[in-house]
Amino acid sequence: MALAFLGAFLGASSRPFGGWISDKVGAAKVTLIVFGVMALGTMSVIMAITNNNLTMFFISFVVLFIATGLNSGATFAMIPHVFVATKTPAVVGFSAAFAAYGAFFIPKMFGWSLELVGSFNGALFVMLGLYAISIATTIYYYLRSGAEKPIR
């Protein structure tokens, strides 16, 4: 419990860097890369649980917390490119409010997974599926040639 603050601290601390990097290289590219890092981090957590490796588990979650913050900054950097300027403030507000539910739903998912399948891996596999959908969506809508809303 002494380290429980670490996740929120790392995520919040890395968020400005996600926006800054997005301004330099492109928000959609950063979003895509970070979703990939999050998928790899989640696979690493699954391996750590399977192998009872606490060090790998801890490092994997540190990577996930940092990547989550970077992705948050990159996502907010994309919003002005996707929406009309008059709607941007409302979308930013809605996105921030919706993102706050992560602090509720992620632990809840772990609880449901533990109840239903006896381990956290069920929730982690769901998250891997969501990262795959997010990667495909980012490529399709923002990065492919002929994309509807190209963001580089």
Architecture overview:
This protein is an all-alpha fold and 152 residues long. It has a single domain, classed as MFS general substrate transporter like domains (Growth Hormone, Chain: A), CATH 1.20.1250. The protein is 82% helix and 0% strand. The chain is built from six helices and no strands. The termini are far apart. The model has no long low-confidence stretch (mean pLDDT 92).
Question: Short summary of the structure?
Answer:
This protein is an all-alpha fold and 152 residues long. 82% of the residues lie in helices and 0% in strands. Helix 5 (102-117) crosses helix 6 (121-143).
Kindly provide the name of the CATH class: Mainly Alpha
Classification by helices and strands: mainly alpha
Low-confidence segments, given as residue ranges, are none
Distance between the termini: 41 Å
Number of domains: 1
**Tertiary shape:** globular
- Radius of gyration (Å): 16 Å
Count the helices. How many?
Answer: 6
- Overall helicity: over 70%
Strand count, sense and barrel status of the largest sheet are: none
